[in-house]
Specification:
This protein has 10 helices and 6 strands; from the N terminus they run αβααββααβααββααα. The protein has helices at 2-17, 78-90, 92-116, 159-225, 231-265, 294-300, 302-323, 368-434, 440-474, 488-494, and strands at residues 60-63, 119-131, 139-154, 288-291, 328-339, 351-360. The longest helix is centred in the middle third of the chain and has 67 residues, at 159-225. The chain starts with a helix and ends with a helix.
């Protein structure tokens, strides 16, 4: 009879367990965008403009090309590679994201262990009681008990499976949050290194221009002493020198702050020595740039995948809320011994057992269960709209970077031409001024123009490096090509 009861119960549980309520989440479709120009209103040129100088090479777009995991190595800077390796090992932000992923994985294992398997517990007790049996007088006695109890909630309508599905979606979310932190850290190190190199070049250029202006001031002051130059000309040159000198502290402050930020990205204190100093000349501009297809972009961006995981979790919560509307079945049983004397506890006459099933049916709850299900559906719709908003923002991000690559390359070319013209003009005016064929005001204007053109050229060169790093970041950073992805084993086990 006991075996028959267990067989019927197991058959019923298996039949009911085949039913899983709620929507089955599937991977969102790739966005529908024009194939010819998926990111920008007008088709992009096959390559950017070129300009003289090491940072002026033309960059060619390669549609569908994959991104290496260590994309920053394309800049061919050994100090940059070392700094990023240090940052990946020592960054507290990355370590925090890794710990959050481990916590989510352990939470899934704990939830799976408590829901998928029967709860088995051992009980041992010894009590002293007073009671009566039938018509006899009350008596005081000892009662000893040792038993094993088993309890199992039958997943009749898929509540357990949907709950575990939702918990695993949070693991996916934390995994992609980790990838987002990894991408942000590496991109921040690269862009900060470029910024430091740009500021260092601007500081050097400004110092050189200041030195030239001070030499001109010394010459003009001698001419003024001899009466060859009027006093206003001396004052004008002093003003120019003072204005140029006033720009140095701001550049020095920005350079120091950028250097400090690089130290923090690397997990170091700003006072620690050994941090490399970057120069624009030490970086090589990548000449081939990958351009991911739209269907690949939505699978590569960690922020999109993280929002997809939240959408998946919300979908599973609908199943949990739906299953709560239906009956819940719990199976229980116990096997053990019970005796009045501890010496008889393990005897055959002291053996006890029980087996039972409990069915809980929701009848009236004031509409709470239905409201929870409607709320879960609303949360699912909200997560879907957040996912779509993230996809739109990602495409905007790529479009902005592509436009910046195109326009900044053209700007660098124009700025290189402007600097060459300004340098030639300054040389000509300087020679004319030495022989008295040009006025001092013309020389002052030529100096000012050349100073601004040199600074603008440095900034334009740095912008191209920063745009390139921004493109790799906008396309996802190549994390899927890393061999040490966290969670691969967990994903395989879960599947």
């Amino acid at each position: 009879m006991k075996r028959r009861a267990w067989a019927v119960t197991a058959l019923l549980a298996g039949f009911l367990g085949a039913c899983t309520l709620g929507p089955n989440f599937r991977e969102p479709d790739a966005p529908r965008v024009p194939a010819a120009n998926p990111y920008t209103p007008e088709p992009m040129a096959a390559q950017t403009a070129s300009a003289p100088g090491p940072g002026g090479a033309a960059q060619r777009f390669v549609p569908g090309d994959d991104i290496p995991a260590q994309w920053w190595s394309l800049f061919h800077s050994e100090p940059l590679d070392r700094l990023i390796r240090s940052a990946l090992c020592n960054s507290p932000t990355l370590a925090s994201a890794q710990a959050a992923l481990r916590q989510a994985q352990e939470s899934y294992r704990a939830e799976a262990g408590s829901l998928l398997f029967p709860a088995v517990s051992g009980l041992g007790s010894a009590t002293r009681e007073r009671g009566s049996f039938g018509t006899s007088e009350p008596s005081v006695f000892n009662l000893y008990n040792a038993s094993v109890n088993v309890s199992y909630n039958v997943d009749a309508f898929g509540a357990t499976r949907r709950d575990l599905e939702a918990v695993w979606a949070t693991v996916d979310y934390q995994r992609f949050q980790l990838e987002a932190a990894y991408l942000a850290l590496t991109a921040n190190v690269v862009t900060s290194a470029i910024q430091e190199a740009s500021l260092r070049a601007q500081l050097q250029t400004t110092s050189e221009v200041l030195a030239l202006q001070e030499k001109s001031l010394a010459v003009i002051e001698k001419q003024a002493a001899l009466g060859a130059v009027a006093r206003p000309a001396v004052l004008a040159q002093r003003t120019q020198v003072a204005q140029t000198r006033a720009t140095l502290p701001a550049l020095e402050k920005a350079l120091a702050q950028t250097h400090h930020q690089l130290a923090v990205y690397a997990g170091r204190f700003p006072s620690e020595p050994g941090l490399p100093e970057f120069q624009l000349e030490s970086l090589q501009l990548p000449q081939e740039l990958p351009l991911s297809l739209p269907s690949s972009l939505v699978r590569q961006r960690p922020d999109i995948r993280a929002n997809e995981a939240l959408w998946h979790e919300a979908s599973a919560r609908i199943g949990v809320a739906t299953a709560s509307l239906f009956p819940q079945l719990n199976l229980s049983g116990s096997l053990g011994f019970q005796a009045f004397e501890i010496g008889n506890l393990l005897s055959s006459s002291a053996r006890i057992w029980s087996i039972g099933a409990a069915l809980s049916i929701p009848i009236f709850n004031g509409g709470a269960l239905q409201a929870r299900r409607r709320g879960a559906i609303a949360a699912y719709e909200q997560a879907g709209e957040q996912y779509r908003a993230t996809v739109l923002a990602a495409f905007q991000n790529v479009a902005d970077v592509l436009r910046a690559l195109d326009t900044d390359a053209a700007a660098l070319r124009a700025q290189a031409d402007a600097e060459a013209a300004a340098r030639e003009s300054l040389e000509l005016v300087s020679r004319q001024y030495e022989v008295g064929a040009s006025s001092y005001l013309a020389l002052l204007d030529a100096q000012r123009t050349h100073q601004q053109s040199r600074l603008s050229l440095v900034q334009a060169e740095a912008a191209r490096y920063a745009d390139t790093a921004a493109l790799f970041q906008a396309l996802g950073g190549g994390w899927w090509n890393r061999a040490d992805l966290d969670g691969k084993a967990d994903r395989a086990a879960q599947n």
